[in-house]
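Thread: S-adenosylmethionine complex, take 2
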Amino acid sequence: MRIAVLRLGHRPQRDQRITTHVGLTARALGAEGMLLTSNDTGIKKSIESVTEVWGGSFYVKCGVSWKSEIAKWKEDRGRVCHLTMYGVNLPDVIHEIVDADKLLLVVGAEKVPPDIYDLADWNVAVGNQPHSEVAALAVMLDRLNSLRGTDVLRAGFGGKLEIVPLPRGKRVLER
Ligand code: SAM
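Output below.
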């Protein structure tokens, strides 16, 4: 299953940190890349510099048109899942979503364009309470990974640096 994240409504003055966390979380939990509707090249650089050191092939594409990215994704038989507290609850639809070969996970910032609710194949709530795009994305990816038996939390990313998990202290291998 290929998974990418579409981040809507990023405001360069306010959302830099949280959008960076959306990207880093997506990368660490197995997504292939993040599409960002704003043209914030600082975010792209900072996430790609993490990938450079810690491995993998995660990409960040900035300044995209969300409508045309969704259209392209669907033309290529991809499915679209918008994460929103107003949607149907995750446990009720996760068994359908996990069957997608290509999945675009859409997360907002403050408010998303109303059309997204119709364009998405699923509008999914990670609980019907307001919280965070980072948390919603993490739970969604974790549920998908669990159902697919993908052990991404133990996976190596083949980076220049690799952590040796220890009960105490820190050990990092350099390649
Ligand atoms: N009231 C806002 C709204 O229109 O959904 C909440 C915005 S929240 C700060 C930013 C993003 O976090 C939302 O666009 C959504 O993607 C995600 N989010 C927040 N709570 C969520 C929940 N309970 N389930 C799924 N996604 C959620």
